[in-house]
Amino acid sequence: MTHRAARCDTGNVGMARRKLVYEGKAKILYEGPEPGTYVQYFKDDATAFNAEKKAVIEGKGVLNNRLSEYFMNGLTQIGVPTHFIKRLNMREQLIRQVEIIPLEVIVRNFAAGSMAKRLGLAEGMALPRPIVEFSYKDDALGDPLVPEEYIAAFGWATQQEMDDIVSMALRVNDFMSGVMYGVGIKLIDFKIEIGRVWDNEFPRLVVADEISPDSCRLWDIETGKKLDKDVFRQDLGDLADAYTEVAKRLGVLPTNVTHAPTKPTLIN
Ligand code: TMP
């Protein structure tokens, strides 16, 4: 068994004082300290197949909090706006309130999951180019895949917003693929959510929710070993061990949080 992040966790001490805004399957949103902010709390709960399969994976929330912080900070640095403000503690981060667009934006580089099944493709087959697709966020319907035509017609996002979302998703893909490639991991696919923030009457799009191994497919480049939520979906082993491996490679384990490059040392 490898290092477990949750051992030194303080749990949700102090939570009772905060006003709960929304509880999802893996996270809870509380009112933030300032207007226009929320506190996003990462739970240890894992669900799959629209919550038909459930478990509590000790330490998952702590790892996803760190990993999402790492990816969101990286996106900010390359000029992709996100909802992330700062990490507050082991399980919580301060985020901007956004109006969530009710879409799961999925980018795929290699065939896997529902795409492999739908089209009868071999898992891991390289796609001719990255493919962006949208699912309508509705648990009761099982988040059905929807064409852009539906999105515009039902007013979930405007055509201009969809174009912006596709370019943002592709930038996130380039960033995430590069970061992962650098630590020997292939980014098969991922899901992001996009929110609107209002600057006066003008909406601006930001990456929201989380980016973590819960919402990506990550395969070791050498061995093909899965290091994402498929480990839980497919009963392939210990999920926290897989996420710890990703965090370790990126240098973002809770005990080793400095991932800033050290300055070169002059050798006389
Ligand atoms: P899929 O192949 O099952 O459609 O999943 C595509 C990507 O989206 C994959 O990286 C896993 C992620 N995902 C979520 O983040 N949440 C979900 O509810 C589902 C179904 C997939």
Automatic annotation (TrEMBL):
Q: Where is the SAICAR synthetase/ADE2 N-terminal domain?
A: 21-249
State the top-level EC class: ligase
CDD domains assigned: SAICAR_synt_PurC
Question: Key word Cell membrane present in the record?
Answer: no
What does the UniProt keyword field contain?
Answer: ATP-binding, Ligase, Nucleotide-binding, Purine biosynthesis
Q: Which GO terms describe its cellular component?
A: cytosol
Q: One biological-process term from Gene Ontology?
A: 'de novo' IMP biosynthetic process
InterPro entries (UniProt xref): SAICAR_synt/ADE2_N, SAICAR_synt_PurC, SAICAR_synth, SAICAR_synthetase, SAICAR_synthetase_CS
Query: What's the catalysed reaction?
Result: 5-amino-1-(5-phospho-D-ribosyl)imidazole-4-carboxylate + L-aspartate + ATP = (2S)-2-[5-amino-1-(5-phospho-beta-D-ribosyl)imidazole-4-carboxamido]succinate + ADP + phosphate + 2 H(+)
Q: Name one GO molecular function term.
A: phosphoribosylaminoimidazolesuccinocarboxamide synthase activity
Which pathway, per its entry?
Answer: Purine metabolism; IMP biosynthesis via de novo pathway; 5-amino-1-(5-phospho-D-ribosyl)imidazole-4-carboxamide from 5-amino-1-(5-phospho-D-ribosyl)imidazole-4-carboxylate: step 1/2
- Documented EC number(s): 6.3.2.6
Q: Name one Pfam family in it.
A: SAICAR_synt
Q: Does the keyword Nucleotide-binding apply?
A: yes
What family is it from? Belongs to the SAICAR synthetase family.
Could you tell me what this protein is called? Answer: Phosphoribosylaminoimidazole-succinocarboxamide synthase
Q: Give the species this sequence originates from.
A: Yoonia ponticola
